[in-house]
Amino acid sequence: MRRTVISVAANIAEGKGRLRRADFARFLAIARGSINELDTYFDLARMLGYLPPKEVHAAKGLAGEVGRMLTTMLRRLASIEELRTKS
User: Fold this and answer.
1) Which of 41, 56, 64, 84 could form a disulfide with 46 if both were Cys (CB 3.0 to 4.6 A apart)?
2) What's the confidence (pLDDT) of residue 68?
């Protein structure tokens, strides 16, 4: 779970350092995939009794919020790219 969380932040940072928007978008998509992976780990931790349901619910809420932010960023990048290609 720790590696997955680190992967989210690292992919956002790496993508931001790229020169092209398309590369940034690709890394944001990878980060969003890591959020989905983390969601699965939360479910497994709950089912195996490693984390209480209340903590899992709170953690999943935070992860969902990050996922929504990533989706918004991806949509905005796509809109910018679409406007750029139309001009």
Assistant:
1) 56
2) 97
